[in-house]
Fold this sequence. Notes:
The chain is α/β, with parallel strands linked by helices. It contains nine helices and seven strands. Strands 3-2-1-4-5-6-7 form a seven-stranded parallel sheet, sandwiched between helices. Strand 2, helix 2 and strand 3 form a beta-alpha-beta unit. Helix 1 crosses helix 9, helix 3 packs parallel to helix 4 and helix 4 runs parallel beside helix 6. The longest helix is centred in the middle third of the chain and has 29 residues. The protein binds NADPH dihydro-nicotinamide-adenine-dinucleotide phosphate. NADPH dihydro-nicotinamide-adenine-dinucleotide phosphate binds next to helix 1 and helix 4. The site of NADPH dihydro-nicotinamide-adenine-dinucleotide phosphate (NDP) has 30 residues, from helix 1 and helix 4.
Amino acid sequence: xxxxxxxxxxxxxxxxxxxxxxxxxxxxxxxxxxxxxxxxxxxxxxxxxxxxxxxxxxxxxxxxxxxxxxxxxxxxxxxxxxxxxxxxxxxxxxxxxxxxxxxxxxxxxxxxxxxxxxxxxxxxxxxxxxxxxxxxxxxxxxxxxxxxxxxxxxxxxxxxxxxxxxxxxxxxxxxxxxxxxxxxxxxxxxxxxxxxxxxxxxxxxxxxxxxxxxxxxxxxxxxxxxxxxxxxxxxxxxxxxxxxx
Length: 245
Ligand code: NDP
């Protein structure tokens, strides 16, 4: 995917896990990368690993739920680097509880970060993508949006919302040379899934009999950001070892 070279790519939630791996992959393709998450220290550590390719790696401390903060960051990137080729909406959290005992703030926090955060960042970049008449937006949803999960009504609702958002935005932007797609990861080894990953019984429910890696998700994120995916829009693609078949 040589066309990713010199592309300006914004990745939210890049300080660890899937976002970190996505950043590494784009760096391997020699893209310029703009990393956003709340923990600037972690982002700077990642930056020191990535600079080997001598590309632009900028870190921004930003909360995806803060529209003003996100607008300022995106404006700064556009004004200084003239275009925004790719946005990866990856920032996300869980805060699990069965509905009967779920606190109101558990609901709001998860919906706010995962769904409103995706809306915020997309809204902010779309004005520039429309101006430049090109762009790719990739939203990280989850297979839990499709199959549900006990204790995750908040999370599954936020991720199902992202799929609906993706399809509607893809239709809005289809004639403007802007593609919008979602990725539904299955169970990927990261901090988010640490407790589930040790559950052997659960492993047996995955047809490929193994958990995914952050790299598996990053591979698809790069493909959907490249020109090789120009005829794909409005899709939610599973990377789940066959779990949601
Ligand atoms: P991690 O918990 O390892 O990382 C989450 C990232 O999101 C961190 O970099 C965190 O950084 C950032 N983040 C959280 N809240 C905010 C916020 N308000 N503003 C900005 N950044 C934020 O999770 P994963 O890497 O496992 O998950 C990444 C994405 O993939 C999420 O959207 C998740 O829902 C999705 N996913 C993951 C699966 C898995 O199995 N791991 C399966 C399906 C989907 P910081 O704290 O510095 O802000």
